[in-house]
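call fold(seq) -> tokens
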Amino acid sequence: MAKILVTGGAGYIGSHTVVELFNAGYEVVVVDDFSNSNPKILDQIEKISGKRPEFAELDLCDEKAVNAFANQHKDIDGIIHFAAFKAVGESVQQPLKYYRNNFYSLINIITAFNSKIKLVFSSSCTVYGQPDTLPVTESAAVKKAESPYGNTKQIAEEILQETCAVTPDLRVIALRYFNPVGAHKSALIGELPIGVPQNLIPFITQSAIGKRGAITVFGNNYNTPDGSAIRDYIHVVDLAKAHVAAIKKLETQSNDNYEVYNIGTGKGSSVLEIINAFEKSTGEKLNYVIGARREGDVEQTYGDVTKSNEALNWKTELGIEEMMSSAWNWEKYLKANPF
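ret:
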């Protein structure tokens, strides 16, 4: 039974991926420093799966600590690397925080495991900036990033690609995913932002339940059908399953040792469409206002997912209704069971 290290495994996407790895028969080791997650999530994972991942609390920017961890875990067969700061707006205000954390952690992981590892890297559609054509394919030009966060993903991909070019034993798949939303059907894990949410869906659910005031739609004068920005929203469980599919691909991959895949639904939804979908699927009325555009945001982006559908033998199964209803069920669970 292969053992997979999940960095940031107590986080939003990481925790769902740990559950899906267990479902697929893998052993799991989680590393997290809880800078943007909660230790109780490990208990929730155990409630869902009946299994508890091996865990180490670790700052991946601490080179000595990462090296010591790697020496104690020589039986790890693969790594899924989530651990990174991810808020676009914050990255604009604090770029050095993002460059330090997102690069040091990646470099330390690769170095500590002697570059002889199967690695799935958590990348992002932000590497495309504002695409020239939609849906955007993996062969599209990588433009100047719209934010320091996006730039960290671009440069991290370059680091991995250039390292793979001179390290045949290193096998990497970078998953460029779009906007993960929703929660596990059990409502035991979901997005758990610290402080004011930076992402649309948790702000919607917190507003609906009374934790926040009105939702701000950042811009209604984009060149889109209703004027609001368009994104490709993907259910977090479908996204988690894509990471399992990528690990399986790396176990058999014998050609290129570096590949990139878009992970999304292949279609876009506007902010106002998402608000309407939430109201329709939950019966909750939302209060929202139109605000100015937000620095670092692109107008619209959604991906062509033909390559990932075919090469990874994976496709999304859950739609907007499941995304909204599961996110709402998670919010209601949190109200009854505060973390």
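The CA atoms of residues 313 and 321 lie 24 Å apart.
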